[in-house]
Write a structure and sequence with these properties.
Blueprint lengths: L5 E6 L2 E3 L4 E3 L1 E5 L2 E6 L8 E9 L4 E4 L1 E3 L7 E2 L2 E2 L4 H10 L2 E7 L8 H9 L8 E7 L7 H10 L4 E5 L10 H14 L2 E5 L3 H13 L8 H4 L2 H18 L3 E3 L5 H12 L4 E6 H5 L22 H13 L4 E3 L7 H6 L17 H11 L5 H14 L18 E11 L18 E11 L2 E5 L2 E2 L28
Parallel strand pairs: 1-6, 2-7, 8-11, 11-12, 12-13, 13-14, 14-15, 15-16, 16-17
Antiparallel strand pairs: 1-4, 2-3, 4-5, 7-18, 9-10, 18-19, 19-20, 20-21
Helix pairs in contact: 3-4, 4-7, 7-8
The structure holds N-(aminocarbonyl)-beta-alanine (URP) and zinc ion (2 copies).
């Protein structure tokens, strides 16, 4: 057998996976990683367009996998401002090389048709993408649609316990979806906020004239989130189904999942960048509407308790929950949180902010950073080890980081299709030096080298009953 022709060699860096890191060189052949070898070993068969990248003193990480990213997302009257090209370009600029978007039906639409339509857009992307389907209403066709989706590589299904008349699903629909997905190796992703508690509080606030963005955090309480998480855990327990909680905003919500895991429920906790880094004091400041997201930002003490679960293992993944509304959209309904567009832009800032705040400032182990932001998201979407790892055969999606350098974050240097970032003025320590997308250097020191669309939809494979377990039955 002939050796693969090596197109790119990344030499001199420390290669980091979720379960090991060591000095090594990465040899790439075309789109894929060919080998991870002892540093300095030469003698590979080189392609004519061979490139050598010096990563001395740098960290060589798998590109980020963002498990929670809304692209061109319509909710109520509003549609987010980006398309696949723009969202993935911003993702790559921030070190993320795979996004997982949602195919969310509008009223009257069916999950399969929406997913098929959304999947077509992957080829507009600068990097690859995967998709979560979404079930809102259960009818006689839903089981067949879920089976067809799973066979075509969409094994994750998002469901909401809130947003009446938009995406809210009944507990029966969630239970049915869990039961159908379990034998298919699928996973239900749930947005948990108990809608009756949210609506009741909103009615109270309406009576006292307190529905503006400044009151958003009061309108969607932590209690409403906890009540919903408890109910969904009971459904998962009953159905013997795994369950993934999106954007858990408080330590108490994560702890419900931890307790359930001790009882044998396979529960996974996602947190998102804004819940880990900013708190509800933003609602007392001017432009509170720019921070309206669901669940809302929480009290500083809650944020501090939540971040501890990054270090102790309670949190499974960190996504962005990217929603690229601009400030005009946010302002247009700022006096009524019931109708305003919720969600924050963040696909580009997720990794640099987490690297800065947690890896550099608080010594989060770099392997855990990779686990949270790349490997576990890939595992829980059935796309590992193609994504989320630096291993022979994995796609050559790579981000190269330095612990040196710092800059002040400002929206003018970002690429997301909006006019603000919720993190304006934050100090970002460390430097994202280079991003490779499927073997091609795409970004160097913030400049695009190849801003070309070359994305594909990455099909998710059926997952094992515990997708975080390695193929040999142990946590790798
Ligand atoms: O506020 C948020 N998170 N908006 C986006 C939709 C969702 O709930 O994920
Ligand atoms: Zn949500
Ligand atoms: Zn979301």
């Amino acid at each position: 057998m002939t050796n693969p022709l090596i197109t790119v060699a990344i030499r001199g860096g420390t290669v980091v996976n979720s379960n090991w890191s060591r000095p090594a060189d990465v040899l790439i052949s075309g789109n894929q990683i060919a080998a991870v070898v002892e540093p300095g070993r030469r003698g590979e068969d080189r392609a004519t367009d061979f490139t050598e990248i010096d990563a001395t003193g740098r960290l060589v990480l798998p590109g980020g996998v963002d498990p929670h990213c809304h692209v061109g997302f319509t909710s109520g009257e509003y549609t987010t401002r980006d398309d696949y090209y723009e969202a993935t370009r911003a993702a790559v600029a921030g070190g993320t090389t795979t996004i997982v978007d949602f195919a969310i039906p509008r009223p009257g639409e069916q999950p399969l048709a929406v997913a098929e339509r959304q999947r077509e857009k992957a080829s507009d992307g600068m990097c690859d993408s995967a998709l979560h389907a979404c079930v809102v209403e259960w009818d006689g066709t839903t089981q067949g649609q879920l089976e067809e989706l799973a066979h075509s590589g969409i094994v994750t299904v998002k469901m909401f316990t809130t947003y009446r008349d938009e995406t809210m699903a009944s507990p029966t629909a969630i239970l049915n979806t869990m039961k159908v997905l379990r034998p298919l190796g699928g996973l239900v992703y749930v947005h948990c906020e108990s809608n009756h508690l949210v609506e009741d509080r909103q009615e109270e606030l309406a009576r006292s004239g307190e529905l503006s963005s400044a009151h958003h955090h009061q309108s969607r309480s932590e209690l409403a989130e906890l009540a919903s998480v408890s109910e969904i855990l009971a459904l998962a327990d009953h159905a013997k189904s795994p369950v993934y909680f999106v954007h858990q905003s408080s330590a108490a919500a994560v702890e419900l999942a931890i307790e359930a895991r001790k009882r044998g429920v396979r529960a996974f906790s996602e947190s998102v960048t804004h819940h880990l880094l900013i708190d509800d004091s933003k609602y007392s400041e001017p432009n509170a509407e720019l921070y309206v997201c669901c669940p809302p930002l929480r009290a500083k003490s809650t944020v501090d308790a939540l971040t501890r679960h990054l270090f102790t293992g309670g949190i499974t993944t960190v996504g962005s929950d990217h929603c690229c509304y601009d400030s005009a959209q946010k302002k247009s309904s700022k006096d009524d949180v019931r109708t305003m567009p919720n969600g924050l832009p963040g696909v580009e800032t997720r990794l640099p902010l987490l690297f800065s705040h947690f890896v550099i400032e608080q010594q989060l182990p770099i392997e855990r950073f990779v686990e949270l932001t790349s490997t576990n998201p890939a595992r829980l979407n059935g796309i590992y080890p193609r994504k989320g790892a630096i291993l022979p055969g994995s796609d050559a999606d790579i981000s190269i980081w330095s612990r040196e350098g710092s800059h002040v974050l400002t929206n003018t240097v970002l690429h997301m299709s909006t006019d603000y970032t919720p993190f304006e003025g934050s100090i970002v320590r460390g430097t994202l030096e280079m991003v490779l997308v499927k073997g091609q250097p795409a970004v160097h020191q913030g400049e695009f080298l190849h801003p070309t669309a070359r994305g594909v939809h990455v099909p998710g494979e059926a997952m094992s009953p515990d997708p975080l377990l390695g193929s040999r039955g142990r946590k790798p």
